[in-house]
Write a structure and sequence with these properties.
heterodimer; A: mainly alpha; 2 domains; 10 helices; about 75% helix; B: five-stranded antiparallel β-sheet; about 55% helix; about 10% strand
Chain lengths: ~200, ~475
C-alpha cells in the first residue's frame, strides 16, 4: 500500500514532536530511536525510512527552528538596516527559535556541523550549512558584494558562526546576553575585514 | 560653534607622560627608561580600525578614577626604593600595564588620565572643565537590531507591541548604554535607556583581574587604601549597572523638591523598566552646551547656577547622597527656567559613620576651628590624628578644604565663573596627586567628583550663586549642625 504524501508528512511531524519531547525530558544522550518510534506510535523500522540516525533527526529539528527564525527575520527587516545589523538580526532570530532546544543542542550541533570537515558530517547538517550561508550571501549581495571572494568570506563567517553557536550553548548569563555581545563584536569584525581597504590599512 | 576640545583629540605621547611624572623622579634615567619602554609598548599597540577601536574602548568613569589612582600608585613605586625593590616593582608594573592594555576601556582611560596630567600646566580651566565633563561611561553604540533583541529579552515583547513609536536612532549616550526616544501607547513621551549586553560583568571582571595582578604590590603604605577604593568603585559600578536602583533613587529624591522650586525629576515607568532597561518621562529642553550657545543673560545664568547648587545641596543634606556624575548631559535646561535631572545612576549614599565625619568637618569649617578642622582632615585620610601626618600633606589638604569652603563662607553672590578660583581648586587637587597624598576613605572619591563636577558645571555656566545662603537654608534643620 502506498502511503499518501500527506500521511507521510503527518508521520514525520509526529516523529519530530515525539523526539523534541523526549530530548527535553530524558536528555539527548539517553533517548534512543526506539524510544522515539514508540512514542510516535510507529515501528522502529519505519522511523529509519524517515531518518537514518538520531543525529539526523535532531538536526532536522534544528533546521526547522532555524528556518522559522529566518522567516521571523524576513518579517522584521525594513530595508533600512546596514549589512552588519541584518546579519545580526538573522543570527539572533534563529537563536531565539532554537532557544527551547538549548539544553540538548550542543552535542547535536557538534555531530552535525563540524569545523574540521569541509562539508558538514551529515546530510541534514550540510543542508543547513548551505541554507544559512545562502541567506548570508543574499544579505551580502543586497548591500553590494564584498571585495574578498565569497568562498573566503563564507569560510571565515562559518568559523565565527560555529564559535558563536558553541558559546551560546554554554552561555550561563541571563538571556544569554554574553552571546549577544559576542555576536555584535564578531559581526563588526567580519563585515570590516571583508573589505580590502582594511587589509591595506593594516599592512601599510 | 567650534568647541575647543583639543585635549581629548590630542594623542598621548610618552614624552607627555614622562613630563607629567612627579618632579622628584623626572630626570632620573634609571626610572624614566623602564617606564618609557612600558608606556611605549602600550602606545604602539595598534588597533586595526577606527570602528574596532571605538568598539573596544569602553571607557568608564570608575575605571578612569581607578586608573588615576593606579597610575600614581605605579609611579610612586619607582621612587626611593632599593634597586631590588625597584626591579620587583617593575615586574608587577609590567604585569599590571599588560593587563590594562588588553582592556579596551582601561587603555583609553590610561590615555585620558595621562593627557590630563601631561597637559595640566598648560591647560586652561575651560579645557579642564571639558575633560571633567567627558569622563563618563562609554558603551559601544548599538544598532536597532541589538536594541530590539534586548527589549525582547528584558520586557518580553517587541518594541512595536509596547510603544506607539520608538526612534531607531539613539538620542543620547548613557552610562553603559544609550537612550532612545519613544512614545507609550498611553501617549506619554518617554526616554528609554538600554544597557549594552553584559557590559557591567565585563568591566567588573576586568577590575577584579587588575586587583589580583596588583596584589604583589601590597607592601606599599597606601595599598590598603587603593584596594578599598577599587572595591568601592566596583560596588558603585554594580550599582550603576542595575537600573532598578537608579529608578529607586529617582523615586526617593523626587519628594525632596517642591514644584515651585523648578527642579524636575522624571517619572519612572516601572512596567517598562528592568535592571537593564529604564523607561522614564522625556524631559524636553537643552543641554548645557546648547544652552550656553543661546548666550543667556547673566540673570538667567545665575538662576540655573542656583538651581544646580540647590539640587546638589538638597540631595546631600536631605538625601545624604552624593550625586557624583558631573556629565553635563545629565542636566536639561527646560522651558520657563526649570532644570531637569535625567540620570540618577551615579548616586553614592553616605553611610552613618561617613556622615558623622562629614558633619565634624562642617562644624569645624563653619566655626572656623583650625584644630577641629585638622582632626577632621586626618580622619578623612585614615590617620589617627594630624600629628601622624606629614606636614606637607596636612598643609595641602588644609588648603584644599579651605578652597572647598571659601564660597560657602562668602557673603553674597560668589562668582563661580572665576577662572582663577576654579584653577586653584584643580591645581590643589592635582598637587595632592602629584605628591601621592592619595590615601583616603573611599567616600572621598565621590565627594571630590561631586564638588568638582558641580563646580565645573557652574564654572562653564559662568554663574554667580549665594552658596552661603543656600547652604544655611539646607542645613537649618540638621540637629548635627544646630
Amino acid at each position: 500500500m502506498r502511503i499518501s504524501k500527506q500521511a507521510k508528512q503527518e508521520t514525520d511531524s509526529r516523529i519530530l514532536k515525539a523526539a523534541e519531547k523526549l530530548f527535553l525530558s530524558k536528555g539527548y544522550e539517553d533517548t534512543t530511536t526506539r524510544d522515539i518510534a514508540s512514542s510516535a506510535g510507529i515501528a522502529t523500522g519505519t522511523l529509519f525510512n524517515y531518518y537514518k540516525t538520531k543525529e539526523s533527526l535532531a538536526m532536522r529539528l534544528v533546521t526547522n527552528a532555524m528556518l522559522q527564525g529566518q522567516e521571523d527575520f524576513t518579517g522584521k527587516t525594513t530595508g533600512e538596516e546596514e549589512i552588519g545589523e541584518e546579519i545580526f538580526m538573522i543570527m539572533t532570530a534563529e537563536l531565539r527559535r532554537l532557544r527551547p532546544y538549548r539544553s540538548f543542542i550542543g552535542p547535536v550541533l557538534e555531530s552535525g556541523l563540524s569545523l574540521f570537515v569541509k562539508n558538514a558530517p551529515n546530510e541534514e547538517g550540510e543542508a543547513l550549512r548551505l541554507q544559512h550561508l545562502h541567506k548570508i550571501e543574499e544579505i551580502v549581495n543586497r548591500h553590494g558584494s564584498f571585495e574578498v571572494p565569497f568562498e573566503v568570506a563564507a569560510s571565515l563567517y562559518w568559523s565565527l558562526y560555529l564559535g558563536i553557536l558553541a558559546h551560546w550553548c554554554r552561555d550561563e548569563s541571563e538571556h544569554q546576553e554574553e552571546t549577544l555581545a559576542l555576536i555584535d563584536y564578531s559581526i563588526s569584525m567580519f563585515t570590516r575585514t571583508m573589505n580590502y581597504d582594511v587589509i591595506r590599512e593594516e599592512r601599510k | 560653534m567650534n568647541n575647543n576640545n583639543s585635549t581629548s583629540d590630542q594623542s598621548l605621547t610618552v614624552k607627555n607622560l614622562v613630563e607629567a611624572l612627579p618632579e622628584d623622579i623626572n630626570g632620573s634615567t634609571d626610572v624614566i627608561n623602564p617606564l618609557q619602554d612600558l608606556l611605549a609598548g602600550l602606545e604602539s599597540k595598534n588597533v586595526p580600525t577606527k570602528s574596532l577601536m571605538r568598539m573596544w574602548i569602553l571607557s568608564s568613569l570608575q575605571a578612569k578614577v581607578a586608573i588615576g589612582y593606579l597610575a600614581y600608585g605605579l609611579r610612586k613605586n619607582f621612587v626611593s626604593k632599593s634597586e631590588q625593590e625597584m626591579m620587583l616593582n617593575e615586574t608587577h608594573t609590567k604585569a599590571a600595564l599588560k593587563i590594562i592594555s588588553t582592556m579596551g576601556y582601561m587603555r583609553g582611560a590610561v590615555m585620558k588620565v595621562g593627557q590630563l596630567l601631561a597637559n595640566l600646566p598648560t591647560l586652561v580651566p575651560d579645557q579642564i572643565a571639558d575633560v571633567l565633563a567627558s569622563l563618563h561611561f562609554e558603551a559601544p553604540p548599538m544598532h536597532y537590531g541589538l536594541i530590539r533583541e534586548t527589549l525582547l529579552d528584558e520586557l518580553g515583547s517587541e518594541p512595536e507591541e509596547i510603544f506607539d513609536s520608538f526612534d531607531r536612532k539613539a538620542f543620547a549616550a548613557a552610562s553603559l548604554g544609550q537612550v532612545h526616544k519613544a512614545r507609550l501607547k498611553s501617549g506619554e513621551e518617554v526616554a528609554v535607556k538600554i544597557q549594552y549586553p553584559n557590559i557591567a560583568r565585563t568591566i567588573s571582571a576586568d577590575l577584579r583581574n587588575l586587583r589580583a595582578v596588583m596584589q604583589p604590590m601590597r607592601f606599599s603604605v597606601d595599598w590598603q587604601s587603593i584596594r578599598d577604593n577599587l572595591e568601592d568603585l566596583e560596588t558603585m559600578l554594580n550599582m550603576e549597572a542595575d537600573y532598578r536602583k537608579e529608578a529607586e533613587s529617582c523615586r526617593e529624591a523626587a519628594p525632596y523638591f517642591a514644584e515651585d522650586e523648578d527642579i524636575v525629576l522624571p517619572r519612572v515607568f516601572d512596567e517598562y523598566s528592568t535592571g537593564k532597561v529604564l523607561t522614564m518621562e522625556f524631559l524636553p529642553g537643552m543641554h548645557l552646551k546648547e544652552y550656553i550657545e543661546t548666550d543667556p543673560s547673566q540673570d538667567e545664568r545665575d538662576r540655573y547656577a542656583e538651581l544646580l547648587t540647590l539640587l546638589s545641596s538638597r540631595l546631600y543634606f536631605k538625601g545624604r547622597m552624593f550625586f557624583a556624575d558631573p556629565n553635563p548631559g545629565n542636566f536639561i535646561f527646560m522651558e520657563n527656567g526649570r532644570l531637569g535631572l535625567i540620570d540618577y545612576g551615579c548616586i553614592r549614599r553616605i553611610t552613618d559613620a561617613e556622615w558623622d565625619l562629614q558633619m565634624d568637618a562642617w562644624r569645624a569649617g563653619l566655626n572656623d576651628d583650625p584644630e577641629a578642622l585638622d582632626k577632621a582632615i586626618a580622619l578623612h585620610c585614615l590617620f589617627d590624628s594630624p600629628s601622624a601626618m606629614e606636614a606637607e600633606r596636612l598643609k595641602l589638604l588644609r588648603a584644599h578644604l579651605r578652597w572647598q569652603l571659601r564660597p560657602v563662607l562668602y557673603d553674597g553672590q560668589f562668582d563661580f565663573g572665576d577662572k582663577n578660583f576654579f584653577r586653584e581648586g584643580v591645581e590643589l587637587h592635582m598637587a595632592l596627586f602629584r605628591k601621592r597624598f592619595t590615601r583616603g576613605a573611599p567616600i572621598n572619591i565621590w565627594s571630590s567628583r561631586f564638588i568638582f563636577g558641580f563646580r565645573a558645571l557652574v564654572y562653564k555656566l559662568k554663574g554667580k550663586v549665594n552658596l552661603k545662603k543656600i547652604t544655611e537654608n539646607e542645613m537649618r534643620d540638621l540637629p548635627e549642625l544646630a
